[in-house]
Amino acid sequence: MIKTSDISFKGHSSLFVAYVIFGLSAPIGKSAMMPGGIDPFSLVFFRMAGAALLFWTASLFSPREKVAKKDLFLLLGAALFGIVINQFSFIMGLSKTSPVDVSLIATLGPIITMLVSAAYLKEPITLKKVLGVLVGAYGVLLLILTGAQLLDGESNLTGNMLCLLSSLSFAIYLTVFRDLIRRYSSITLMKWMFLYAALISFPICYEKVQIIDYNSLSANIYLSIIFVVCCATFISYMLLPLGQKTLRPTIVSMYNYLQPMVSSVVAVAMGLDVFGWEKAAAAVLVFFGVFIVTQSKSRAQMLLG
């Protein structure tokens, strides 16, 4: 008999690895978009199309699952909110506002998820949830604001709203499609979601992809693209549903805080930043916040007393 604690550990482990890879993908993905590289829209399309190809290939070696016709429609909605709107609104927002603003808005993700869960799933907003989210958010804000002096701080309302839309779309995906996520394996879910995402993004990105001078791209650019597609997309998105199946949406969203933490560590390792007491304190706050939220009760647990 499988213990609940074993299932939870598997869920937390899957999310931890996935979001560590997401954190690594930030500096690596950025290197692919440096001068002489590719534009953001092309990178997003390569990510979607490449992941679709990998997931469909992996499905040939996995147990076959029959997807109900109604779920094929739901998977289209999941792809729109979980991948297409999330990715494109983030990139468009990033092009119109400062990185500091983007990071600040990203910390709102767990709070948005908590509110969406409360409205849609009737999940209770407990004191522990609120405290955990606020502690984790404060840790990330401390990390971000200690490096704010390196940036110009310029912002744009349109860009900020687009980044907020990105967080909202992913919160809707985690919450509204929770039952769908739990019905199928990671490979089945993602092969359909990324196929839909690739088909939707193709007419948007076709012109950008077509004008790339592929012969002029360096080996480092190609390696960066491969990492983003194979690791930051295929492996990470295979791991995400494992956590989403066993953990509540608010807890899942808390792992968003790992991304800026990992990105900061990578920046320090590359000599782009200095690790001080502020970053150490931020790390403690982030993980303590995650711990507090994991100790809160779900609606089902509260009904059972």
Topology at a glance:
Elements lengths: L3 H29 L7 H20 L9 H26 L4 H8 L2 H12 L6 H19 L11 H20 L1 H6 L2 H25 L8 H28 L2 H6 L3 H12 L7 H18 L4 H6 L1
Helix pairs in contact: 1-10, 1-12, 2-3, 2-9, 2-10, 3-7, 3-9, 4-7, 5-7, 6-13, 9-10
Describe the structure.
- Helix content is 77%, strand content 0%.
- It is globular.
- With 305 residues, it is mainly α.
- The protein has one domain.
- Helix 1 packs antiparallel against helix 10 (219-246) and helix 6 packs antiparallel against helix 13 (277-294).
Q: What does the average pLDDT come to?
A: 78
* Gap between N and C termini: 24 Å
String of helices and strands: HHHHHHHHHHHHHH
Radius of gyration, CA atoms, in whole angstroms: 19 Å
Q: What count of domains describes the coordinates?
A: 1
Instruction: Give the class from helix and strand content and strand pairing.
Output: mainly alpha
- Give the helix tally: 14
Task: Count every beta strand, where a strand is a DSSP E run of 2 or more residues.
Answer: 0
* Helix percentage range: over 70%
Task: List its salient traits.
305 residues, 0% strand, 14 helices, globular, mainly alpha
Quick recap:
The chain is mainly α and 305 residues long.
